[in-house]
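Explain the record.
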Amino acid sequence: MLTFFVGLRHGTGRALRHALHFDPGLRMLRATALGMATVLGTYGWSLWIENRAGLHVDSVVQAVVISSSFARVQRVHDRTDRLIACVVLPCAAAGGMQLTALIRDHPNAGDVLFTLGVGASVWVRRFGMRATRAGTLVVLPLVAVLVVPGGVAPAQGYAPTGWAASTALFAVAWGTVVTWFGHRTGLVPRPASASVATMPVPDRPGLRAGTRMALQSTAALGAAFALGRALWPDHWTWVVLTAFLVGSGARSRGDVLVKGVWRTLGAAAGTVVAAAVAGSFAPRSDAVVVIIFSVLAVATWLRELSYAYWAGCVTAMLSLLYDWFGQDAGSLLHTRLTGILVGAVLGIAASWFVLPIRTSGTVRSRTAAALAGLGEVLSADPHDTRAVRVARARFLFRLEQLRLAAAPLRVAESLPIPSAASAWWRKRSLALLAAPTALGSCAEPLDAYATAVTTAPDAATADPALSHRNRETAAHGVSLRRAIGHRPAPPTPAATTTAPAAGTPPNPPAATTSTPAAGTALNPPAGSTANPPAGTALNPPAETTANPPAATTSTPPARTTLNPPAETTANPPAGSTPNPAARTTVDPGGCRTEPEVPAGRGIPAAAPAPADRSGPAGTLVAPAATTTPSGDPRSPEMTAAHAALDAISLQLDILTELFGHPPAAPAPPAVPAPAAPC
């Protein structure tokens, strides 16, 4: 019990410290101010349309819901996304208005269409970032269908549909103007383009994550509609809305579990607070409208701190909205709390039992994606400044996605769980929790490296030590990605055996040796054939073997130096043509081979094979250090680049200790030498 309270105190203190420093530079507060400017402008436009066209208040509610959601998602939209939004969002708003009427008049058909629409908007995520953002825009009007209280929107024909589309288009246009102002004044940073905000698709067997989440959303919403209408026919929207919010945007089953718990706790607190102030204002009071917008601003700002704040504020805002319509929030307190709990349970159950997406698998795949982005920066051409800048931005984006995916593990780690019960879990999650920290420590040195090489691209290209260190670090990242994915490293060249070319004399057995005369080559270079002058026998000393067995390779391992005796010569002098005898006889097993070599035709020695730079399990073997010649010191840019690569390598070493090395690839079977013709 004492351990529980001590852990709870430390967890509370950590949460308070995080709450006080969660928005350095007030970046999120500035973005919230621009978002609320978009909401208030759209709200004013919808009020004017309502008065001029004689619409119902549900059109105003839909405009506020769409604009508030769009103000948040537009932070990551570029120009192409905004052009897509000009088409998708008005069509979705018109469809949402018609869906509201369909649910009111034909509940079963409306419920099925709503469920399929949400599932389809999630399923399109499998087609890339553009499709993901378009699917998010489709969902925004569907939320408004659940927010408007049932029975308050009378039938008005098709006129509200056209006005809903025009209001959505105004929200996109006005939001674009506000965002442009924020970018020009520096209030908010420019969003990453779609080419930067890309995630590699993991090559895994089975269904993709987008398809799995679509099926999960369909199952959760279908069950929520069925239970909600059966248990609370007049207030079924609380169950469906909670199930929708818990599962929407979830990255893994751990993320759904955390959001479900925070949604339940925050919604319960918001409902209780709203019920306490219920009755303090008259129906249709302007003061309630002011409070609703104030609560919406606070919810938008605190959303990045914790989902519980967002859930609590939104629930309180909806309770105040229902109070504005004249419903008694106090009498509905028990119904709302129960509906929220049921919806959260349905959303969590669907994510855990319907094609679940494991949190550890998500963190591993995003760690590998961040490592791939790190390699893209290292492999970019220093002369191409734009390519380096785009690769660096892509790495930072993937690093942020990794941190979001690992957030549920950090929440679980901060819980006051006894050490004996959590030892096994903490051991498994150690590497997953260390990955965002280690890769986050690479961000600053990677930025220094990119700045150094783009400042002096010619010096970076001409520095052989930097080029070698660059390739070594990139190869280390590739090896680490293989370890994360449990994929074996490719076999090294020294482990393979090739069959001799046609017409090449086969290797004699291990017991067959030949002794060369003094001054002949002991071991020729890899790929070359030592041919002494005619009449010279190839007989090395008794303890050496000229031809290894067929199962071994003729190329020596990397960094192995073959030193023949001082009196032997591996390569004949330049200009000499080693011609073997016209009939060289090798009789390894009773068969006689007599290769014919045309007189006067020399066989040139092959160039030495490049040293193998990979060691066991795919790790790199560092070559001898390259020193800078005296009188040619490194420039400050190259010194900074070397220091940055050293810092990055240190973090990769930390991850290697946690994830281990990739499994060794099975050795390929030895190719037997063909039988000698008799």
